[in-house]
Amino acid sequence: MKKTTTAKKAGVSKKASARKAAAPKKVTERQAYAYLRKDKRIEVIDDERRVGNSLIINLKDGFRFNDEGEHIFGEDSALEAWESMKRVQPCGCDDCLKALGKLEAVAV
Ligand SMILES: [Zn+2]
Hints:
Elements: H1 3-22, H2 29-38, E1 42-47, E2 55-59, E3 63-64, E4 72-75, H3 78-84, E5 89-90, H4 94-99, H5 103-107
Antiparallel strand pairs: 1-2, 2-4, 3-5
Helix pairs in contact: 2-3
Bound molecules: zinc ion.
C-alpha cells in the first residue's frame, strides 16, 4: 500500500470530494426514486401522492431527520426527498436505542 501518497492526497482532495458530492448531474425523478429505494437508511417509502399526500419516507431505526425522534418526513417528489436525505443523521432517541438494543448499555 502506498500510504504516503494516499495521506498526501487526503488533505487536498477534501474540497474536491465535497464539490463532487454537491454537484450531482441532473437527476430525474425516476433516478431519485431508485436512489431512495437503494438507500440503506430508509425503511419504507410510502407514496401517498395519489391520495393528495406526500411521498413519505420512513427512516430506519437509528436515523432521524431534522430533530431527534423525527423518523418520518414527506416531500412532494422523489427528487426533493432525495435532496432531503442529505439532512438525515444518526438518531439516538430512546426508540432507536431500544430498537437497536442499545438502551441498556446507555442507561447503565
Ligand atoms: Zn430515533
